[in-house]
Write a structure and sequence with these properties.
The chain has one domain: Serine Threonine Protein Phosphatase 5, Tetratricopeptide repeat, CATH 1.25.40. The longest helix has 117 residues, at 326-442. By secondary structure, it is mostly helical. Helix 3 runs antiparallel to helix 4, helix 4 (59-74) packs parallel to helix 16 and helix 10 (187-203) runs antiparallel to helix 11. Helices cover 87% and strands 0% of the residues.
Length: 457
């Protein structure tokens, strides 16, 4: 019976406690660039639509919008956009696809896409985005039952959230760590982390979050009592310890219930009614158990929570069985099996839908991959062509350089030879002039000869 209670409580505590998906947050500078880029804004809008559908549980629509975003990212649509903007949009698309695969229970592919997104966020050192994706990766490992890796990634996310001072996210991750410790039976550490998370949410005014953590503290006390019950020998000391733990569980469940009722969060209230009824059932306080389990059943039916209806009917069946009302016990057991079978068929239908979506998504993925490979091949060919052209240009330039070098050298030689000739010519002319001056100085002048002749006559 304790196991059934645990499952009932986990549906809410684990389901609403953990942010099953987190959207990686971009830096303000990147958001500004996206807003000023018309094409980037269109892809960003598709990513946002996909994310909103994920949060609304509309995975087929989320899948459609994610495909649209990826098709544009794989095309030349953003060829003029900033590189960081493109990578940021890829990161968000990867995160969305990872979340979609997670919802399909395809954890291998989910991790593959989350790690792709993580790599981009780490390259940008976008701590907010890194923290969100680390948390998502931790949740996938939770679904795989790998507690060591789950805890490791939550602790990494916690370190970043504390560094950035994001108290809301810190409280969330503290709570996730508490859930891990609860699942491995380390209730002392679980309670410690849940208490830190509750105080953190109380400090920022998040009453809903605080109530969740208080409920988880109650669950930890309840599970600790059940773990003792599983021992073969229960002495008086252990019996008193179990009663004390049940009392503590009730204390925190009621604290959580009071806040949830004030906030009018019906689904959580229904689960807490069931949890309180189960504690009373284990405590052998059957009237109180009947009161709260009946409340849980009524509210679960009102809000169409089939899982809650199924579990509470099973618990009421056990209650009436131990109190000797076998007719009512059988009635509730039949209702339990009816809802269980209905949910089983519903789940089979969802599995088929998931299979179809997985097939379609994989097909689209292969087409996109093939198109990208073609583009890559064209790009490589263009780069090779550009390289050849560049080499030819370099060769031509080198030849031109050599040609001009030879011409320059030839001109330099010619000028040198001309200068030498001119210098020699100058020397010759100077020599002639010098000889003529000497000759002139030695030979008598014409007038001098005439005077001499006149005297002789």
């Amino acid at each position: 019976m304790s196991k059934k209670f645990y499952l009932v409580f986990c549906v809410i505590t684990f389901g609403i406690y953990k942010p099953v998906f987190s959207q990686n947050v971009s830096s303000d500078s990147i958001l500004t660039l996206i807003q000023t880029d018309k094409n980037a804004s269109k892809v960003s809008a598709l990513n946002s639509k996909s994310w909103n559908c994920i949060m609304g549980g509309k995975m087929d629509s989320a899948f459609y919008f994610a495909q649209q975003a990826i098709e544009l990212l794989n095309s030349d649509f953003l060829e003029k956009s900033n590189k960081k903007v493109i990578l940021t949009l890829w990161s968000k698309a990867y995160n969305n696809v990872g979340s979609i695969y997670y919802s399909h229970a395809d954890y291998v592919k989910s991790l593959d896409f989350y790690f792709k997104a993580l790599k981009i966020e780490e390259d940008f050192n976008n701590k907010e985005g890194i923290s969100d994706i680390l948390n998502n990766i931790g949740i996938v490992y939770d679904s795989q039952g790998n507690r060591t890796k789950e805890l490791n990634y939550y602790l990494k996310a916690l370190k970043i959230d504390i560094e950035t001072g994001n108290k809301s996210k810190t409280a969330t991750v503290l709570g996730n760590i508490g859930v891990v410790y609860t699942s491995i039976g380390d209730y002392q550490n679980a309670i410690k982390y849940f208490y830190r998370a509750a105080k953190m949410d109380e400090g920022i005014g998040n009453k809903s979050g605080m109530a969740r953590h208080l409920g988880n503290i109650g669950n930890s006390y309840f599970e600790k009592a059940n773990s003792i019950l599983r021992k073969e020998v229960i002495d008086l000391t252990l019996s008193n310890q179990i009663d004390s733990l049940y009392d503590k569980a009730l204390l925190f469940f009621f604290k959580s219930l009071k806040i949830k009722e004030q906030l009018n969060e019906s689904s959580d209230v229904a689960v807490l009614y069931g949890n309180i009824g189960n504690v009373y059932l284990k405590h052998k306080k059957y009237n109180e158990a009947k009161n709260y389990l009946t409340k849980a059943l009524s509210l679960s039916q009102e809000i169409s929570d089939l899982y809650g209806v199924m579990e509470v009917n099973q618990n009421l069946s056990e209650l009436f069985s131990v109190t000797g009302d076998y007719k009512k016990s059988l009635e509730h057991y039949k209702k339990y099996t009816l809802v269980k079978d209905s949910m089983y068929n519903e789940e089979k239908g969802r599995e088929f839908t998931r299979y179809e979506m997985n097939f379609e998504f994989s097909k689209k993925e292969q087409i996109a991959k093939a198109e990208q490979e073609k583009k890559d091949a064209v790009t490589i060919a263009e780069k090779k062509k550009q390289t050849v052209v560049l080499i030819l240009v370099c060769i031509v330039l080198a030849l031109v350089f050599v040609f001009f070098g030879v011409v320059f050298r030839s001109l330099k030689t010619t000028r040198k030879q001309k200068r030498i000739i001119e210098e020699k010519n100058k020397d010759i002319l100077d020599s002639i002039r010098y000889a003529k001056r000497i000759q002139n100085s030695l030979l008598p002048t014409e007038k001098y000869i005439e005077r001499v002749l006149e005297k002789l006559n």
